[in-house]
UniProtKB/TrEMBL annotation:
Record key words, sorted: ATP-binding, Lipid biosynthesis, Lipid metabolism, Lyase, Nucleotide-binding
A single GO BP: isopentenyl diphosphate biosynthetic process, mevalonate pathway
Entry's Gene Ontology molecular function annotations: ATP binding; diphosphomevalonate decarboxylase activity
Alphabetical list of InterPro entries matching this protein: GHMP_kinase_C_sf, Mev_decarb, Mev_diP_decarb, MVD-like_N, Mvd1_C, Ribosomal_Su5_D2-typ_SF, Ribsml_uS5_D2-typ_fold_subgr
Annotated Mvd1 C-terminal domain residues: 179-297
Similarity comment: family membership: Belongs to the diphosphomevalonate decarboxylase family.
Domain Diphosphomevalonate decarboxylase-like N-terminal: 7-164
Top EC class of this enzyme: lyase
UniProt-listed Pfam families: MDD_C, MVD-like_N
Name of the protein in its database record: diphosphomevalonate decarboxylase
EC number in record: 4.1.1.33
Length: 329
């Protein structure tokens, strides 16, 4: 009745930005990401306790945060076909800054989905886990498995064909590095789910974004298959720019970049002219993630620090969400 899972966040190389179904979290387009190690979230779920209780990073979860966790567990009960599992206790802890444009919710909901099913006595099933994780937070469906995962948008209105599949595992490209530059530790002003809704509803560029991003996914897959860092880096940057352009064109406009983000991007271009193979991507926050290789990660970290990074986290391709024998309570 109790299970604990460790999951890693992921960084989208081709971003997911916009839902066609808000309740089921079904995207307008497919996306592709890399799972990041050593960053992780660990979550313990236990069914059959006296009342529902949700603790996230040492705080009792309230409001929509608590509801999203409980809603996911309701789906676990439905999958188990067992309404008698009873109330659940959830304790979750991450080892990196939350809501700062890093996919902390991705790792959290992936860990919750895998732990929830295991605590309900269900066997491991990456498709079912990915669909469950998606109900918590879209990008979470890509953190159930490690390496490079592709979230296929799917066609069905019930979302049963909208889940992530692993294209290449972490061992496919061990020299790849993602260097997270923390320029700002604050919580972002506009959460991803609100930002993307604003873009879908008001940006005149939104339809173009969807068409372009969908077409980039197979290209990204090819670059990864060939371990072509330059081609992947260039694709990654243009996809990030296009996601942010869509949002800048929304009403009201949405700008996730701050002055330090822009400064770092200009600096990075200068470095590249001097032959350092480094590219960036940027989620819905001010903290860029630099894409490079093992031989250049020290240079990428130095670049981030020279541009005012408060903290730098060097990441390597991460593995699958895994069950742990040690519980958080
Ligand atoms: O899954 P959410 O609601 O956290 O949205 C994630 C959106 C981006 O991080 C900006 C892009 C992505 O694909 O992860």
């Amino acid at each position: 009745m109790k299970a604990t899972v460790l999951a890693h966040p992921n960084i989208a190389l081709v971003k997911y930005w916009g839902k066609r179904d808000d309740a089921l979290i079904l995207p307008h387009q497919s996306s592709l990401s890399l799972t990041l190690s050593p960053l992780s979230v660990t979550t313990t779920v236990e069914f059959g306790v006296p009342t529902d209780a949700v603790e996230l990073n040492g705080h009792v979860a309230k409001g929509s945060e608590r509801e999203r966790v409980l809603r996911l567990l309701e789906s676990v009960r439905a999958q188990a076909g067992d309404k008698s599992l009873g109330p659940a206790k959830v304790v979750s802890r991450g080892d990196f800054p939350m809501a700062a444009g890093l996919a902390s919710s991705a790792a959290g909901f992936a860990a919750l989905a895998v732990a929830g099913r295991a605590a309900a006595g269900l066997p491991r099933d990456t498709k079912a886990e990915s669909i469950l994780a998606r109900l918590g937070s879209g990008s979470a469906c890509r953190s159930v498995q490690g390496g490079f995962c592709e979230w296929q948008r799917g066609e069905r209105p019930d979302g049963d064909d909208s889940f992530a599949v692993q294209r290449f595992d972490a061992a496919h490209w061990p020299e790849l590095r993602m260097v997270v530059a923390i320029l700002d530790r604050g919580e972002k002003d506009v959460k991803s789910r609100d930002g993307m809704k604003q873009a879908v509803e008001t940006s005149p560029y939104y339809a173009a974004w969807v068409k372009d991003a969908e077409a980039e996914v197979p290209r990204a897959r090819e670059h990864i298959a060939r371990r072509d860092l330059q081609a992947l880096g260039e694709l990654c940057e243009r996809n990030a720019w296009r996601m942010h352009s869509t949002s800048l064109a929304a009403e009201p406009p949405l700008c996730y970049l701050n002055a330090a983000t822009v400064g770092l991007i200009h600096h990075l271009r200068e470095h590249r002219k001097k032959g350092v193979p480094v590219w960036f991507t940027l989620d819905a926050g001010p903290n860029p993630v630099l894409l490079t290789d093992a031989a250049n990660e020290v240079a990428a970290e130095a670049l981030a620090r020279a541009c005012g990074a408060l903290d730098v986290i060097r990441c390597v391709p991460g593995g699958d969400a895994t069950l742990k024998s040690e519980h958080l309570f």
